[in-house]
Specification:
Elements lengths: L1 H41 L5 H20 L3 H17 L5 H23 L6 H14 L4 E6 L3 H11 L4 E6 L2 H10 L4 E5 L7 H10 L9 E5 L13 E4 L4 H12 L4
Helix pairs in contact: 1-2, 1-4, 2-3, 3-4, 3-5, 4-5, 6-9, 7-8
Length: 258
């Protein structure tokens, strides 16, 4: 039985490697399509549906990259989506230059992943951070970790008018992965997360050596259980009807803005 389980695991890993290789082989063509859509929008040759197709393709690439363990693709596409949302209906030369810069980073990931076993993406991460500060400088990056799709939607609606770049995850492991690889200015986290609960996530973050270890944290919970002081939680919000009204002011206060 052990041998059978081992064989199944080996077969699954081989299948996953083959699917990942297929994804990387298709990545240049997918980047070509993104580039063509950007150039069409910049040149005024495309209808509004072209923007929607571009956004949808970036979103699809984001999910597929994460599936195959290429978190850097997910990170690039998250930021690309924010840039597209900010640029909606303003398809100038600056839009084209910015969008093509993201496409170029995706190409670099594909080249590096196909050619290197170790895959050190730190130069690409540094380039992505430079893009963020240049193109999205007015938006502060915020990560929201919340298991409920309904609550995630409410958070987004509540914070929509603030100068924030919002990223959403639905479990603690995904949140920790994002926090270890992508800079954020604020974490809003539900205590009742799956895989890794909110307090465990914050504890892991505080003990890490990543650039986000000291960022402010807003903890949301239906429980009034005491919060360990070493977690350095900046704000606590009771989960309930008043959360949506309370969150914007707490978020801006945590970011040091009135």
């Amino acid at each position: 039985m052990t041998s059978s389980a081992g064989n199944s695991a080996t077969q699954f890993e081989a299948m996953l490697r083959a699917m990942r290789a297929s994804f990387l082989a298709e990545l240049p063509e997918r980047c070509d399509r993104l580039e063509q859509a950007v150039l069409a929008l910049e040149g005024g040759q495309a209808a509004e549906s072209a923007y929607e197709d571009l956004f949808r393709n970036v979103h699809s690439l984001k999910g597929t990259g994460g599936t195959f363990g290429l978190q850097i693709i997910t990170t690039i596409c998250h930021q690309f989506e924010s840039f597209l949302a900010d640029s909606h209906s303003r398809y100038t030369q600056a839009f084209g230059s910015g969008a093509l810069a993201y496409v170029d980073l995706l190409r670099q990931v594909g080249d590096l992943a196909a050619a290197t076993a170790g895959m050190d993406f730190s130069p690409i991460e540094a380039a992505l951070e430079r893009l963020r500060t240049t193109l999205l400088r007015s938006r502060r990056p915020v990560l929201i970790a919340e298991p409920s799709a309904t609550m995630r939607s409410l958070y987004q609606q509540s914070l929509a008018d603030l100068p924030l770049q919002i990223s959403l995850v639905d479990n603690g492991i995904a949140a920790l992965d994002r926090l270890l690889h992508q800079p954020f200015d604020l974490l809003i986290v539900a205590r009742e997360l799956g895989a890794l609960n909110g307090t465990a996530l914050v504890a892991a973050l505080r003990e890490s050596h990543c650039k986000n270890r000291g960022i402010p944290v807003i903890l949301v919970s239906s429980s009034r259980e005491a919060i360990p002081e070493h977690l350095r939680i900046d704000h606590f919000i009771q989960r309930g009807r008043d959360l949506v009204n309370t969150l914007p002011a707490r978020a801006m206060a945590a970011l040091g803005q009135p």
